[in-house]
Amino acid sequence: MARPPSPCSPPPVLLLLLLLLLPLPVPLGAGDPLPTEGRLMINCIQARRKCQANPTCNATYHHLNSCISSINTASPAEEPFVPVDCVEVAQHLRNSSLMSCTCHRRMKNQAACLDIYWTVHPARSIDSDLCLKFAMLCTLNDKCDRLRKAYGEACSGSRCQRHTCLGQLRSFFEKASEAHAQGLLLCPCAPTDQGCGQRRRNTIAPNCALPSGAPNCLELRRLCLSDPLCRSRLADFQTHCHPMDILGTCATEQSRCLRAYTGLIGTSMTPNFVSNVNATVALSCTCRGSGNLQEECERLEESFSHNPCLMEAIAAKMRFHSQLFSQDWADSTFSVMQHQNKNLAMRPQPWAPSLLSCPLTLILLPSLW
């Protein structure tokens, strides 16, 4: 039976992986052995000369070089941004020897060689940042992109209205797909990659969403209990992220704990990551000045910062997100996603037959904050 024609809408995960996870050559170190086919490889200066002899290749390279120049002139405080046309132009060089050229340490004209190498790989220097990749996936999804821009606008600027910001944050985590929302919030970062960690912390726009100063945690709870929605969300968190014994046995499965955790974002009890170098989360509050209620306050604070159920649920989700971008994605991505999201099996997948027939585009979203 013939398959019905499908629209050109490949899933964002595969679209991004097709662009960013294709094997790319890296500059070789002085002591690095050449690969088996090393005799067939040329350095990037030689590849550039070969490209210059072909008018089409030469024009494409100059166009791409102009793109990269505009990227490099961005402010250091801005997010790296690769325009979609730059990435599309780079695809036209896929069969060029430029895409497989190498550079060696101490080679003559090494700087010029490396300049050529990075010109033809415009997104390579940031492709290890998984938080940025999940931001790109959100950008490629109309609904996620629209909802993220809405809370980005509401939560940005020195005169942000915290109440409006929190409302837009709740809207994002309630309406965006769980895969997109949790991908943005719970993206894995290497401990040494503080840029990735900072991007993860900034997901909820903490400068506006979190209370200024450090209020008492019991005061935050009092505010939460006075609001029916927050009170319900807090009860949900205490139910589904509750360790039942000293061994850390959890009351319910990890997925429910994570849903309860994200449900608190946008309330007066909004938690967040505490630093750029680890995945520890906490409320933005203190227990100083709690008096006779010091122990009660510390229990409340530690239900976030030292909660084994929550910590393991977050760690497991980050491991899952790492697997989505592993090198063996073609074999593992679908099996892992089916295990994590069994309900997806019931949904139609119209993109599958025509995945590779669609034009590949990519937008790297600049930071909203």
TrEMBL record:
Subcellular location: Cell membrane
SMART domains in UniProt: GDNF (SM00907)
Record domain GDNF/GAS1: where: 44-125, 131-208, 217-309
Signal peptide coordinates: 1-31
Keyword check for Cell membrane: yes
InterPro entries the UniProt entry points to: GDNF/GAS1, GDNF_alpha, GDNF_rcpt, GDNF_rcpt_A3
Primary location class: membrane
Record keyword Glycoprotein present: yes
Keywords: Cell membrane, Glycoprotein, Membrane, Receptor, Signal
Pfam families per UniProt: GDNF (PF02351)
Family classification: Belongs to the GDNFR family.
Name this protein carries in UniProt: GDNF family receptor alpha-3 isoform X1
